[in-house]
TrEMBL record:
Pathway: Organosulfur degradation. It is a peripheral membrane protein. It is an enzyme of class 1 (oxidoreductase). It comes from Pteropus vampyrus (Large flying fox). This is Methanethiol oxidase. The keyword Transferase does not apply. Interacts with USP33. The lineage of its organism: Eukaryota, Metazoa, Chordata, Craniata, Vertebrata. It catalyses: methanethiol + O2 + H2O = hydrogen sulfide + formaldehyde + H2O2 + H(+). One of its GO terms (biological process) is protein transport.
Length: 472
C-alpha cells in the first residue's frame, strides 16, 4: 500500500506498526448536558493522561458547542490510516456528529492539539435537504478522503439506516453513500473492509423508539434491531441481511484489524451476546454466537431478569484480545480470540454497575458470581453507573473506560449519573497472559466540571486508536 511512499500520510502502514506508536498524552471526550438539569451546550473535553504531567487526570480544555441539546455521542477523524499512502492528507480535524440534533461539528486539533478550536458546523437542514437523513452516529474517513456518517433515521424520526457523505476538505454535504432508495431498514454502526469489497452495518432502533427512553413494549413489538446488513463496498448496496441468533440490538461492530481478515465481532446489547461474523468460501457471509453473558435473576429492578447489556466492544490492534463492557451488570471483560470461534475469558473486572452490594437490587440467582460485587471507590469517589465506552492504548496496555451511555437512558437506568456526572477510569492490561487491573491513581471526575456534572462518552487520541483506524 505505502511501498515507495517517501512522505506518507496520516496514521500507520499496518496495525502492528500502529502498536509501536507513541503513548497517548491527551484524550478527547464529548461531554453531554442534554437531559441534565444544566442548560448549557455539550462540549469537547481535552484530558491530560500523561503520568509525568502536573495536570495528569485533569480536564485541561473545554470547547463548548454553539447550540443546546445536540447530544454529542461518537466522533471520528477527517482522515486516518486508510489514507496512509497519500501524503497530501493529514489527521487534523475531529468530526463530531450529533445523535439528536443531526448537526456535525468539525473541530481543528492540528493547530493546537491541547486547545482545539471549532472549525466548521454542518447544519442539519443541509443534511435533511440533500440526504433525507438524520440522527447521526458513527463517523469513518474513507480512502477517498471523504467522511461517511451512519444514520438511524429520517428527519421525522422514522427508522432509516443510511450514510451521509461529506467532503473531507470543504465539509460540503455531497449526498448519500448508498444508492437512492437503498437505505437499510435500521441503522447504527458500520465497518468496511475494502479487500473483501464489503461493509457491514448494525441496527439500534428508530429514533422515535429510543429517543425518549427504553420501553419494554418496543422489545416485545420487535422494534429493536436483530440483523446485520452486508453491503457491496463498490456497488453501495445491500447484498445480504443476516438474522442473528440470540442477537437482539447489535451495536458496535469491529472487523479484525488485519485488512486481509474476513471476519469480526459484534456486541448485541439486549441479548448480551457476542456474535462472530465471517465470509464463507462461496463469498457469502454468516454469523454465529460465540459468547453469551447469562442474565441474573433479581429483585428490586424493572424486570425479574437483568441482562448484562453489552454496550461497547474493542479488538486489540494485534487481533489477540477482545474487550467488552456490561453496562448493567457492571463488569469489563477481556477474551483471548487467538481462536476466533472459541473466545477464552482471560480478564474480568467490576467497575460499578446495578448489582453492587448495598444497592436497591438483590440478586436471587447468578450463574457466574457467588456474591454481589462491592461498590467501587477510586480516590475517595464512589463510582456510579457502569463501564460503558472503552478505548485501548495503541500498545494494548491501557484501557480507558467511561460510564455514560446515552443521556436519556442514563437518566432512566442510572439517575445518579445525572446528579453526580460520569467518570473516566483506567485499567492496566496484561498483554502476555491476559488480565485486567484497575489503576487506583487514575480518576477523571466529570461531576466536578465548572458548569456542573457532565456525561462524558467516547474517547479519542490525536494519533488514532483501535476503533477509528481502518487499513485498506
Amino acid at each position: 500500500m505505502a511501498a515507495g511512499c517517501g512522505k506518507c500520510g496520516p496514521g500507520y502502514p499496518s496495525p502492528l506498526e500502529a502498536m509501536k506508536g507513541p503513548r497517548e498524552e491527551i484524550i478527547y471526550l464529548p461531554c453531554i448536558y442534554r437531559n441534565t438539569d444544566i442548560e448549557a451546550p455539550d462540549y469537547l473535553a481535552t484530558v491530560d493522561v500523561d503520568p509525568k504531567s502536573p495536570q495528569y487526570c485533569q480536564v485541561i480544555h473545554r470547547l463548548p458547542m454553539p447550540n443546546l441539546k445536540d447530544e454529542l455521542h461518537h466522533s471520528g477523524w477527517n482522515t486516518c490510516s486508510s489514507c496512509y499512502g497519500d501524503s497530501s492528507k493529514s489527521r487534523t480535524k475531529l468530526v463530531l456528529p450529533c445523535l439528536i440534533s443531526s448537526r456535525v461539528y468539525v473541530v481543528d486539533v492540528g493547530t493546537e492539539p491541547r486547545a482545539p478550536k471549532l472549525h466548521k458546523v454542518v447544519e442539519p437542514k443541509d443534511i435533511h435537504a440533500k440526504c433525507v437523513l438524520a440522527y447521526l452516529h458513527t463517523s469513518h474517513c474513507l480512502p477517498s478522503g471523504e467522511v461517511m456518517i451512519s444514520t438511524l433515521g429520517d428527519p421525522e424520526g422514522n427508522s432509516k439506516g443510511g450514510f451521509v457523505l461529506l467532503d473531507g476538505e470543504t465539509w460540503e454535504v455531497k449526498g448519500t453513500w448508498e444508492r437512492p432508495g437503498g437505505a437499510a431498514p435500521l441503522g447504527y454502526d458500520f465497518w468496511y473492509q475494502p479487500r473483501h469489497n464489503v461493509m457491514i452495518s448494525t441496527e439500534w432502533a428508530a429514533p422515535n423508539v429510543f429517543r425518549d427512553g427504553f420501553n419494554l413494549a418496543d422489545v416485545e413489538a420487535g422494534r429493536y434491531g436483530s440483523h446485520l446488513n452486508v453491503w457491496d463496498w463498490q456497488r453501495h448496496e445491500i447484498v445480504e441481511t443476516l438474522p442473528l441468533q440470540d442477537g437482539l440490538l447489535p451495536l458496535e461492530i469491529r472487523f479484525l484489524h488485519d485488512p486481509a481478515a474476513a471476519q469480526g465481532f459484534v456486541g448485541c446489547a439486549l441479548s448480551s451476546t457476542i456474535q462472530r461474523f465471517f465470509k464463507n468460501k462461496g463469498g457469502t457471509w454468516s454469523v454465529e454466537k460465540v459468547i453469551q453473558v447469562p442474565p441474573k435473576k433479581v429483585k428490586g429492578w424493572m424486570l425479574p431478569e437483568m441482562p448484562g447489556l453489552i454496550t461497547d466492544i474493542l479488538l486489540s490492534l494485534d487481533d489477540r484480545f477482545l474487550y467488552f463492557s456490561n453496562w448493567l451488570h457492571g463488569d469489563l471483560r477481556q477474551y483471548d480470540i487467538s481462536d476466533p470461534q472459541k473466545p477464552r475469558l482471560t480478564g474480568q473486572l467490576f467497575l460499578g454497575g446495578s448489582i453492587v452490594k448495598g444497592g436497591p437490587v438483590q440478586v436471587l440467582e447468578d450463574k457466574e458470581l457467588t456474591a454481589q460485587p462491592e461498590p467501587l471507590v477510586v480516590k475517595g469517589k464512589r463510582v456510579v453507573g457502569g463501564p460503558q465506552m472503552i478505548q485501548l492504548s495503541l500498545d494494548g496496555k491501557r484501557l480507558y473506560v467511561t460510564t455514560s451511555l446515552y443521556s436519556t437512558w442514563d437518566k432512566q437506568f442510572y439517575p445518579e449519573l445525572i446528579r453526580e456526572g460520569s467518570v473516566m477510569l483506567q485499567v492496566d492490561v496484561n498483554t502476555v497472559n491476559g488480565g485486567l487491573k484497575l489503576n487506583p491513581n487514575f480518576l477523571v471526575d466529570f461531576g466536578k466540571e465548572p458548569l456542573g456534572p457532565a456525561l462524558a462518552h467516547e474517547a479519542r487520541y490525536p494519533g488514532g486508536d483501535c476503533s477509528s483506524d481502518i487499513w485498506p
